[in-house]
Amino acid sequence: xxxxxxxxxxxxxxxxxxxxxxxxxxxxxxxxxxxxxxxxxxxxxxxxxxxxxxxxxxxxxxxxxxxxxxxxxxxxxxxxxxxxxxxxxxxxxxxxxxxxxxxxxxxxxxxxxxxxxxxxxxxxxxxxxxxxxxxxxxxxxxxxxxxxxxxxxxxxxxxxxxxxxxxxxxxxxxxxxxxxxxxxxxxxxxxxxxxxxxxxxxxxxxxxxxxxxxxxxxxxxxxxxxxxxxxxxxxxxxxxxxxxxxxxxxxxxxxxxxxxxxxxxxxxxxxxxxxxxxxxxxxxxxxxxxxxxxxxxxxxxxxxxxxxxxxxxxxxxxxxxxxxxxxxxxxxxxxxxxxxxxxxxxxxxxxxxxxxxxxxxxxxxxxxxxxxxxxxxxx
Length: 379
Fold this sequence. Notes:
Elements: H1 9-18, H2 25-31, E1 40-44, H3 47-55, E2 63-69, E3 72-81, E4 92-96, E5 108-112, H4 122-132, E6 140-147, E7 150-159, H5 163-168, E8 176-179, H6 194-198, E9 199-203, H7 210-221, H8 224-234, H9 237-249, E10 260-264, E11 271-275, H10 292-295, H11 315-320, H12 324-362, H13 370-378
Parallel strand pairs: 1-6
Antiparallel strand pairs: 1-2, 2-3, 3-4, 4-5, 5-7, 6-7, 8-9, 8-10, 10-11
């Protein structure tokens, strides 16, 4: 099924703004002589532990460290984070505290390198678009990170989706599942052990998947009439349509069957979706390559025939689109995003650009690092 958007010029203009050119060489050289302007965070970790992290970047073993911010410091545990990104030159970091008794009011922090995104904005802008649509999403903030006094560059500090996130959004604590691979397509899995790998339980009893199993079975096995009569009792329809409309509009191929968080409200038993790791959007592929043809893609699948990431493979979305009423509601939201949401983002892009520009110049670890250019041009 194809959803034709009458006017996608706003989307094309938005993507053009996101392929950033961070100023002249003179500005770059000047910024190399000054200090970061973003909030500065410092991780201190014993060198043997740091060596172990680099020797096995895909290990989920945490090592003791100290996190310093402003005049504060906390004992913590650290490791690298990410699914396919841990071998990249610029690492993303997961910081874990023993409790949430800290100024962050959380037990985990995520320092995202956003290495595959030249603009360093896509994840942040996606969350901003969810906020614009009044849908819960992580708060995010740009910071400058040091590890053992060595610059690690600009990072996006992303809020973990756990208890404080729920409290901030007036949601009762209950199950939150992180969709880790493309098996999270809202259909039951053929082998029970796969749930542990596909749906990582972030909040709730780690061994209890009963609420998720019930939800997936209803979505898949309800008859046409049962689905029509009962679907609004098992999912928060406003939230679900917002999620699909946003990810569809920004062509976020990597977030239809993975890279999201599923929450089940204990008061209503309705499921909600929250975005996560949306850097492969606005024309960016998951591997960081920019594809102009993605910008105008309107049928929800990748043109390289790797269609397993597509909206059409999400069982919930597929079933919703069988009903004219939900199709119309989805199209209304997509058109609103293109006409109003992208206009909001264009102003947001300008302010973010101005905010991070100086420190991005100083970041010699980001993809396409300016420092390499300076060294080559200055001999």
